[in-house]
Structure formats: C-alpha cells, structure tokens
Amino acid sequence: MNRVPNIAKQPQKSSQRKEKAPPEVPAIITDKERGSYYEKGRFLGKGGFAHCYELTNRATREVVAGKVVPKTMLVKQYQRDKMTQEVQIHRELCHKNIVKLFHFFEDSLNVYITLELCARRSLMELHKRRKAVTEPEARYFTHQVVEGVLYLHDLKIIHRDMKLGNLFLNDDLVVKIGDFGLATTVDGDERKKTLCGTPNYIAPEVLNKMGHSFEVDIWAVGCILYILLFGQPPFESKSLEETYSRIRHNNYTIPSSSTQTASNLIRKMLHADPTKRPTAKEVHRDIFFKSGFMPARLPVSCLTMVPKFGGHETSMMEENVAPRGTDARVQRPLNGRAGLAALPPHMVANNAEREKAQQQASEATFREPEDAYLSQLFHQVAVLLEQRIPGIEEEEAALDGYQSPECLPIFWISKWVDYSDKYGIGYQLCDNSVGVLFNDNSRIMLDQAGNELTYIEKSNKEHYFSMQNGEIPMTLNKKVTLLKYFRSYMNDHLVKAGEGSEQRVGDDLARLPTLRVWFRTKSAIVLHLSNGTVQINFFNDHVKMMMCPLMQAVTFIDQNKRMLTYKLSNLQRNGCPEKFLHRLKYAKTMIERLMSDANVVAHNPSRQADVPRGMASARSASAGSRGPIHTGNHLPQSASGSNIHPRR
C-alpha cells in the first residue's frame, strides 16, 4: 500500500527568504525508504518553487526526471497540503498520455518526486519554434491530449491547468500530461469554487466564480487546439484585463484558413455555456479526428521544421504544388520562394487526405521568412548589445539559476568537412544525419538511418527519395556518391556514429534543417541553418555558439564541453561573462554580413558567385590543402573538419 506523503515542516529562517534561489541538491540523492541512490545529472529547468534534474538510478542506470522542492518553500501548511494532494492524485495514474510518477521521498533539505523523463520538453517549446503547425500535426497532438483528459475524467479528476507548457513530449513525441499541482477530484455534480488556472486558458465560469467542473479542461483543450492551428491563444490581448474581458464575452475569431471540421470542434469546446460543451468522450469521437490525415507518429524534426506528408519521387519531373497566394502558371510563390514538390500520382490516387496534408505543409513553408529569420536574429542581438549588461564571472553564469535549458537547439552541426575548392561542404547534424551544401548552391540531406534522402534545388524546390527502393534519379548519382564519401569520411575520421539505425514509423515525414549559408574567417566558421539557427565555431579555443531567433536564446559549448543556454533577455537582466559578450558582439557583425550577402543576391542574381556558400561559394574563405576525391570511400585526410561532442 502506498504511503501517504507526510512532508515534515521546516523551520523558517531569515536567511531562507530568497524564493528563487535554487535548491541545495546533493550529487548523490538517497531514497532511504527504498534503498535507492540517484546521481544528479543535468539541469532540466525550473517552474514555481521546483527545479528539475536528470537523475540516474545507480543500480539500474534508469534515467528519470527529478522534481526537487526545497523545504524552505514548504513552510506554510497550505503549501504542504497542496503538494501532498498533487502527489496523492498523480501517483495513482497510469496512462500512456500521462507523465508517470514513480516515487516520492524527502531528506533534510528537499522533497523529491521522480517522474518519467520527457526529453523533448513540451508543446510550449514547439509553439515558440513553429507558431502554427499543420492540421495533421495539431490533430496528432490534440488527439493524445484528449485521450489523457478522457482517462482523467473517467477517474473523476479535473486537471485545471491544461496548457502547452504542461503537455510534455518524450523522444517519440508522445504527449504526456503533467503538473498536477492544481488538479482536484470531484464527487457527483460538485462544482469547485477555487479561482485557478493560467490566463490564456482559463474558462469563463472560473472567472465568474460560478463554480466549475470537468468542462474547464474541455475549454482548455479548445484553446490548445486553437493555438496549435493558428499560432496564438484565442483570447490573448495586450493586458490581462482585456484578455479576461474577451473570455467573459466569448470574443474570439477563427481565421478563414481553418477547415470546417476544425472550426466546428473549436466552437463546441469554447462554448460560453459549460453545460453545452462536449464531454471528453464526445470530443474524442469528433469528426475532426476521423476525417483528416493523422500521422501514426511524428519525427523529432517537426519540433523545428514543417514536416512533409507526401511520398517519395522516382524522378525529378514532378511540379510543385501551388499553394494559395502563388502564381500557378510558373509554380512559384509570389514572394519568390519555392516549396515542397507535389505528391506522386500513385500517392494522390491512394490517399486524398494525405494529398491535402501535403498541400497544407507546402503552404506552411511559404509562410517562413525568405531570409530564414536572419533579420529577426540581428534585431534581437542588436537590442541586447544596446543595453548596459552587467558583467559576471563564467562560473557564476554556469550555475543552474542562470540557465534556460528549454531553449537548447533541436539541431546543430556537430561535424563538418570543408572541401569547397572542388565540391562543397559536408556536415553532420547532432542526430547523425548528413548533408552537403554543394558549390552550385544545391543541397542534399540523408537521415541518420540512411534511408530518407532529400535533394533541394538552387530554387529551393525540394524532392524526396528512398535509398532502399532504387528510386534515385540518374541525374543525382554524382551528388549522392559525393554525399556518401563525405559521410564515410566523417564517420571514419571524425568519430564513427549513426550507421545501422533502424527506420521508424514517421521517419518519412521528416524535413531536416539544411545548411543554407556558410563562410570562414580567420577566427571562426559561420554556419546558417534553414530553421534560423546561426552557429559560430571559434578556431582558437574551440568554443561554439548557437543562436536561435525563434527561442531568442544563445547556447555556448565551452572548452569543458558544457552546454550553457541563456535567453537573451536574461543575459541583459542577470549579466554576461566578458568572454561570451565579446562573442555576441562578433556574432552581430557576422549576422550583418550574412544579411548583406543575401541582399546582394536578392537584388543582383548575377553576383551569386561572389558571396558565401549557400548563396554560392566562398572559395577565398576556405583554407587547408586539398586534393581530388579518391575513388575509395574516403575524402583525403587533409580536408578540414571539426567535431562537437558536448557534455549534456
């Protein structure tokens, strides 16, 4: 029988009134009741009074998430009661879409809750990177949320804080509902009176203190679906008062781009009268989840890139799908960018829903800025550097309280080989997928399993092939051969990794970020990925930095292989070591150069050969002696290259 949590009262001391100070967590955490020992690993994040760490069970080597709450934050009885109720409710739950709570214990300093590790953070980080997602993705995520809510409601539990930040994702992108701090149980027709929730998701009956029940979770799911589809909360405004007024008056608008089934479901879930909202069971059976394409699984790349829903091609003859707002005669968008290639005829005939999904994905790629977020990033860095930034020591900046690990990039370049005096630059992403940016500005990418091949023309038109089915057109044979050589060289000379991975369901939907532009200076190599990330690897001390305009954050990998991630706004508020500040100033100059070169190409295409790789080739910027590619499986060892193997 499970022990009821009994949190010992901790005497309040005057020196313990700094509420945001991180807990004092020992390197080895002991669960005396079970005789278990946990090694404290990397910091995962913080929320409320809790800090979260990776914990490794010394005996089993199982890695879990450890939620740590200092007892100094549990001085008052209501605080202890609230945490006790959270644990009592959560520990009894067992469902694929609920974060599993394993154990609860305490020592003299802290209360510990061990939880299922959700390594891919939450839907909030997805939202920040992607804003609106495609309808198939929204359907995939929301369906899992509804399954979790249905399970809770069957147990007479109301979550009461359903929001993107409490919907966690494991490595397979399975949604897990977590954070039961506001959850409660109800008996029969009982109506709860507590004013609780998060402003953008709070139901009108909670605001009006009419009493609430299961319907508040349905309302929140309606808000979640709306955000996923349209990129912002339905009632959001510039002030809390205005947001609450909009909620009370049911004042929201569904964009005209919405499908009828999505609009209808949102309207039902956001009905002002809670008695007229559907139950979780009715939502689960809604036509929205049955009438459109819903992937069985989504790839990790969708956390930062629009997926593809089409099949493979067998030739390079397919025309682009022409999204709304494009000139169909030339199959090019009005903003000058090309999109995803069309579905092959056999796929269209067999799956009309998937054809529609591919159309939506194509339209989503046209909404991405033409400069891949460079101007946004430049503005963010420029605004930061205009401020007076306090100086702090490097070791202080490395403390958990300064970090924002939720902003860690999904992808970065972990290895690269510069062979641009003949062919281009080869690189490996952190997931072991491999790409080449050729001197003619075309790009090719092979996933980590070695099965899914993407070829991107100079015009940005994308084509997808399977390496297993012999579908590669003859026109691509030379470039595929070069890709294999680059891949072999990096595996053999820059640490072998990634071969033999099994292909999983959903891998064929992945669109990986590709290297868009690069150049080298005397001090560093500068790399710009198609998802907006700018990466700078410094040659002298081997420090790396990755800047993400979508998360408005920067990650440094220092000489000790530590990954240190900061929100730009926190650097201005908390301070920045001089060593990192100097690199941010350098980065601003490099981003400005990337933007300048892009503008040259945009206004004078004939100058393409004079600008960095990705617009064209930066032959003068590359260095190192090189010879012709050998006929074996390797590039010559004299080609330049680099590794990144951070401690995470």
From TrEMBL:
Pfam families: Pkinase (PF00069), POLO_box (PF00659). Residues 412-492, 514-596 form the POLO box domain. It is found in: Chromosome, Centromere, Kinetochore; Cytoplasm, Cytoskeleton, Microtubule organizing center, Centrosome; Nucleus. It comes from the Eukaryota. Its EC number is 2.7.11.21. It is an enzyme of class 2 (transferase). Residues 1-25, 603-648 are annotated as: Disordered. Keywords: ATP-binding, Centromere, Chromosome, Cytoplasm, Cytoskeleton, Kinase, Kinetochore, Meiosis, Nucleotide-binding, Nucleus, Repeat, Serine/threonine-protein kinase, Transferase. Residues 613-627 have a biased composition (Low complexity). Its main location: nucleus. ATP binds at residue 67. One of its GO terms (molecular function) is ATP binding. It catalyses: L-seryl-[protein] + ATP = O-phospho-L-seryl-[protein] + ADP + H(+); L-threonyl-[protein] + ATP = O-phospho-L-threonyl-[protein] + ADP + H(+). The keyword Lipoprotein does not apply. Residues 634-648 have a biased composition (Polar residues). Residues 38-289 form the Protein kinase domain. CDD domains: POLO_box_1, POLO_box_2, STKc_PLK. GO terms for biological process: meiotic cell cycle; mitotic spindle organization; regulation of cell cycle. GO terms for cellular component: centrosome; cytoplasm; kinetochore; nucleus; spindle pole. Belongs to the protein kinase superfamily. Ser/Thr protein kinase family. CDC5/Polo subfamily. This is Serine/threonine-protein kinase PLK. It comes from Caenorhabditis latens.
